[in-house]
Automatic annotation (TrEMBL):
The keyword Membrane applies. This is Membrane-bound lytic murein transglycosylase B. Residues 52-71 are annotated as: Disordered. InterPro entries: Lysozyme-like_dom_sf (IPR023346), MltB-like (IPR043426), SLT_2 (IPR031304).
Length: 274
């Protein structure tokens, strides 16, 4: 875990707007910063891998704030059931993955998970507009793309050994007592953040999703973790092409101004990748 601040459980819709009010105040005095490039960059889709979004009078939010990194690949429309069975790591154009991995230094296996997660979420949360660069920035800040503390990201997307954060025992953190009897984080007294996207067990129990479609929701598997992160941010923030919503969603993931600014800076940097 890169910051002493813990992850918080999901913020309900009824609690979002007080967070947005705080965020707007911080933006006004320049404490929180986010450029438009951080907000929404859409990766091209692998030919025939997933159904294209239905036609709409609304503009594609993925191109509202930053250009698509590379040419958009034509998509063969398939039914939603086929799309839902496709592992997220197989959704993005592999040539784009190789090119952007080389230009950013993001491991190709991690990038495939981040890009595929936002493409899948564009199907399940069509109004969200989250960019691959946001999820990638979270992966960098949370675990250096699954490489922190000597961990290794395997070809199947599993991170090992597990990346486990400090106990949330009030010593420089919020107090979060054990919620999983140590099943996920190995600590039966306090919760700890776990995995490449650093979820605490109580949050994972609510938002964990099966990104590699193997029937198991695994916090240490990067497809599952990336898809869960993208969906969680969309659930909390709504339209993430709106700056205050983007900041509020990231702030709900980890309520630290420094964390928010670090994610924004990384997302801006990744947005420039081609």
């Amino acid at each position: 875990m890169t910051d002493p601040e813990p992850l918080l459980p999901p913020v309900s819709r009824s609690r979002l707007w007080p967070v947005v009010t705080i965020v707007l105040a911080l933006l006004a005095v320049g404490i929180l910063t986010v450029g438009v490039g951080a907000l929404a960059v859409t990766p091209p889709v692998r030919q025939g891998a997933v159904s294209a979004p239905a036609a709409s009078a609304e503009p594609d939010p993925g191109t509202s704030f930053a250009p698509t990194p590379g040419p958009t690949v034509a998509v063969t429309r398939t039914d939603g059931a086929v799309a839902a069975r496709t592992p997220v790591s197989e959704l993005a154009d592999p040539e784009w993955i190789d090119r952007v991995s080389a230009s950013t230094g993001i491991p190709a296996r991690a990038l495939a998970a981040y890009a595929g997660a936002v493409l899948d979420v564009s199907r399940t949360h069509p109004g969200c507009g989250i960019g691959w660069n946001t999820v990638a920035a979270m992966g960098l800040v949370e675990s250096e793309h699954g490489s922190m503390n000597g961990a290794h990201l395997a070809a199947d997307g599993t991170v090992s050994p597990a990346i486990i954060g400090i106990p949330l025992d009030g010593n420089g953190t919020e107090i979060v007592r054990d919620t999983d009897r140590g099943a996920i984080d190995g600590d039966a007294e306090w919760d700890r953040a776990v995995g490449p996207l650093q979820f605490i067990p109580s949050t994972w129990a609510q938002v964990g999703r099966d990104g590699n479609r193997d029937g198991v929701v695994d916090v240490n598997q990067i497809d599952d973790a990336a898809l869960s992160t993208a969906g969680h941010l969309c659930d909390v923030g709504g339209d993430l092409t709106v700056a205050q919503n983007w900041i509020a969603a990231v702030h709900a993931y980890n309520p630290s101004i420094e964390y928010n600014n670090r994610v924004a800076a990384a997302a801006e940097q990744y947005a420039a990748a081609r």
